[in-house]
Write a structure and sequence with these properties.
Strand order of the largest sheet: 1-2-3-4
Helix content: 10-25%
Number of helices: 2
Radius of gyration: 12 Å
Order of helices and strands: EEHEHE
């Protein structure tokens, strides 16, 4: 996981916690006072219904609701650069 700075000005430096694994990204980002961006194309791809660059809400929403910490945002993929 990394951080993207400048995502939301005014919130503790405007950062966002980014990760592809729910357990470290969610609590870690929240503990730092950040919003959390979960990348679906990763370890939880099957649970999130990720396929061909899309997330299936019917699969993702129940799984996300069952997590101890929910991300602020979910994106299918993240391309840097």
């Amino acid at each position: 996981p990394g951080a993207v700075r400048g995502a939301r000005p005014g919130r503790r430096g405007g950062g966002v916690g980014v990760g592809a694994a729910s357990r470290p990204a969610g609590p870690g980002g929240r503990a730092a006072g950040l919003d959390v961006l979960l990348v679906a194309r990763g370890i939880h791809a099957a649970e999130l219904g990720y396929e061909a660059g899309r997330v299936d809400p019917d699969a993702a929403l129940p799984w996300l609701a069952a997590q101890a910490v929910q991300p602020t945002f979910v994106v299918p993929e993240l391309v840097w650069g």
